[in-house]
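Propose amino acids for all 341 sites.
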């Protein structure tokens, strides 16, 4: 088949979405399909988003350059606004600022004006798709809540899934993620200050909150127990997963969350929160990790428990890996669902 995959490209910002896009394109090509990936520049800002919606609605994707496209697979807003008679959407997320992250009390007039336009755009184009999938149950829930549209959750493996291993416990809790407000490293550091045990925390990644986190660590006197590692290589990430006691992922309302799956592949229990969204599809409290209320005190109790019971962490980590394997998450099954008639 001749397939066109649509996705976004945000200059100088890379993350899990890139692995998602690249993984899908590579999987489709491995199965012999002729695949082109149309990555549309995405710029934040209400005026730019409005122009982008208008632009994709006018794109000709049925017969570009006189080459017929058999099927379009769209992953992101606003790329799913293209029109094609055989259009499948595998939704990563919508424009969250106009949905679950929208706050009428703090929203700017420009964002308030944009919100109904984005909703109408989504209702129009997502409803027109021949089939709809979501990359997690949480994304599917939002689509049902805000747009009254059904999507089937469809899981895919994290990047380099086959390379994750479990090794000796070196005595730290690991959290690799961008340092941004929704990832809630601040909550985790505040929880560490409430711990009764000397829990050690390694935070990998960079972002807008680095300066604020450095100040918080110093203010709380946690310099000996928290390390900000900054950017790390893929090889370093694999090593740090392998030797962790547990993995923390207290994010707020995550879409999918590779960190959960990576921890399970490395046989590490996950410490997450009751409002963390995507991880809750995989983490079973007391079986494969801890699901804490999103408060420093509750999170501290989970950290203390993990720190006090390294043997129990190993058992929960093995259970997590078995749970992952039982779901048979793989690119072959993803491609089969996306290309089914």
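Proposal:
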């Amino acid at each position: 088949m001749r397939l066109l995959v649509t996705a976004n490209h945000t200059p100088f910002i890379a993350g899990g979405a890139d692995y998602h896009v690249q993984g899908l394109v590579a999987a489709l090509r491995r199965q012999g399909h002729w695949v082109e990936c149309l990555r549309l520049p995405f710029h934040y800002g209400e005026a730019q988003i409005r122009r982008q919606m208008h632009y994709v609605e006018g794109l000709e994707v049925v017969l570009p350059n006189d080459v017929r496209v058999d099927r379009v697979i769209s992953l992101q807003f606003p790329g799913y606004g293209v029109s094609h008679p055989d259009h499948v959407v595998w939704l990563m997320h919508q424009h969250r600022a106009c949905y679950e992250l929208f706050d009428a009390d703090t929203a700017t007039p420009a964002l308030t004006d944009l919100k109904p336009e984005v909703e109408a755009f989504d209702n129009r184009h997502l409803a027109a798709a021949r089939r709809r999938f979501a990359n997690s149950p949480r994304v599917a829930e939002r689509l049902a809540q805000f747009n009254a549209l059904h999507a089937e959750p469809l899981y895919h493996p994290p990047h380099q899934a086959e390379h994750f291993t479990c090794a000796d416990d070196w005595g730290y809790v690991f959290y690799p993620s961008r340092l941004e407000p929704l990832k809630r490293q601040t909550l985790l550091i505040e929880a560490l200050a409430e711990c009764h045990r000397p829990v050690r925390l390694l935070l990998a990644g960079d972002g807008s909150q680095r300066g604020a986190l450095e100040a918080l660590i110093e203010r709380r006197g946690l310099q000996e127990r928290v390390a900000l590692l900054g950017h790390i290589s893929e090889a370093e990430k694999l090593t740090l997963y392998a030797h962790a006691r547990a993995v923390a992922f207290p994010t707020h309302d995550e879409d999918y969350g590779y960190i959960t799956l990576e921890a399970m592949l490395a046989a590490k229990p996950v410490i997450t929160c009751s409002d963390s969204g995507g991880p809750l599809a995989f983490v079973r409290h007391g079986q494969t990790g801890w699901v804490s209320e999103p408060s420093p005190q509750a999170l501290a109790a989970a950290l203390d428990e993990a720190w006090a019971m390294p043997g129990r962490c190993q058992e929960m980590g093995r259970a997590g890996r078995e749970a992952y394997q039982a779901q048979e998450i793989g690119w072959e099954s993803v491609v089969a669902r996306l290309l089914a008639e």
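The chain has eleven helices and twelve strands. The first strand starts at residue 2 and ends at 9.
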